[in-house]
Amino acid sequence: MKEFTLLYMSEANAVTLVTGASRGLGRGIALHLAGHGYSVVINYASNAQAAEETLKSCKAAQVDDGQQFITIKADISNREERVNLVESTLKQLGRIDVLINNAGIAPRVRADITEATEESFEELIRTNLQGPYFLTQSVANYWLNTAVKPVLQNGFKIIFVTSVSANTASINRGDYCISKAGLSMASQLWSVRLAESGIQVFEFRPGIMKTDMTHSVRDKYEKFISEGLIPEKRWGTPDDVGRAVTAAVRGDLPFATGSIIHIDGGLNLRRL
Ligand code: NAP
């Protein structure tokens, strides 16, 4: 990671808040942001050890003395903990420039929609949709209602990590699909609302990614991939997402908001 350098020195104090950065895609995002000179808040739900590992790797990737890295435990499905996440970030690092809504969960049990429970539905909606939607509201209001000025190219930014499941029907995890379809609309809503204030919003839509989330279905997906489900014929990685998100953060996607960026090796393409 040390080969990365800051593109814009004025951005050296920019603070990025990455939810669910202790593992998986969030860790990949945190590492790339660290390697590009940004300060990173590593949010996690319960796995303090994994969060510490991300912190250590961010420090190893650091390219500027001014960068700071902290971990904050907060369950984004819980209102008080979301408030604490924002307040604690502002108290410790003084500002927020980018919110990356990455944290998310799969259903505890993959069950056909004729049998799936309301408890699972509620848990998925609270965590994957309500949490990021209202966390975005908190951060947006901080930008809109305080005198904080942006230091990033193209201003403050919100990123939503949704999923190919936002528009792909999987009948054994309807709750997950609905939560991600809703989150895709959240991205559109916030992009329209915040555009006049110069705040960019992006939806990053990963496909089949090699993380803990897909561990239980690894063999099944391995078979799908070998049979050609994904045109690029490989698993996606945290590195793939980290690189792409960092491009948006550093301003490489000007004159764009509400855009959907597929990180899926072509999985979303219709084929005949
Ligand atoms: P993962 O490996 O299971 O990691 C999940 C991360 O989210 C962990 O850091 C976890 O923290 C955190 N987290 C979970 N619930 C949380 C909560 N309530 N509050 C705060 N943090 C929470 O998952 P992943 O594969 O990296 O997925 C990241 C995002 O990408 C999710 O939104 C997921 O839906 C999406 N996605 C994943 C795939 C895929 O194939 N893996 C595909 C498309 C989209 P702890 O370590 O403390 O548990």
Describe the structure.
This protein is α/β, with parallel strands linked by helices and 272 residues long. It has a single domain, classed as 3-Layer(aba) Sandwich (Rossmann fold), CATH 3.40.50.720. It contains seven helices and seven strands. The chain has helices at 24-35, 48-61, 79-93, 118-145, 174-195, 218-226, 238-249; strands spanning 15-18, 39-44, 69-73, 98-101, 157-161, 200-206, 259-263. It has a seven-stranded parallel sheet, with helices on both faces. Strand 4, helix 4 (118-145) and strand 5 (157-161) form a beta-alpha-beta unit. Helix 1 (24-35) crosses helix 7 and helix 3 runs parallel beside helix 4 (118-145). Mean pLDDT is 96; it is low at 1-9. It binds NADP nicotinamide-adenine-dinucleotide phosphate. NADP nicotinamide-adenine-dinucleotide phosphate binds next to helix 1 and strand 2.
| Helix and strand element order | EHEHEHEHEHEHHE
The pLDDT mean sits at 96
The ligands found in this model are: NADP nicotinamide-adenine-dinucleotide phosphate
Low-confidence stretches: 1-9
Q: Any idea of the CATH class? A: Alpha Beta
Oligomer: single chain
* CATH third-level topology: Rossmann fold
- What is the helix fraction of residues, given as a range? 40-55%
Structural class: alpha/beta
| Gross morphology | globular
Strand order of the largest sheet: 3-2-1-4-5-6-7
DSSP strand tally:
7
Largest sheet: 7 strands, parallel
Number of self-contained structural domains: 1
CATH level 4 superfamily:
NAD(P)-binding Rossmann-like Domain
The amount of beta strand, in percent, is 5-15%
CATH architecture: 3-Layer(aba) Sandwich
Per DSSP, the total helix count is 7
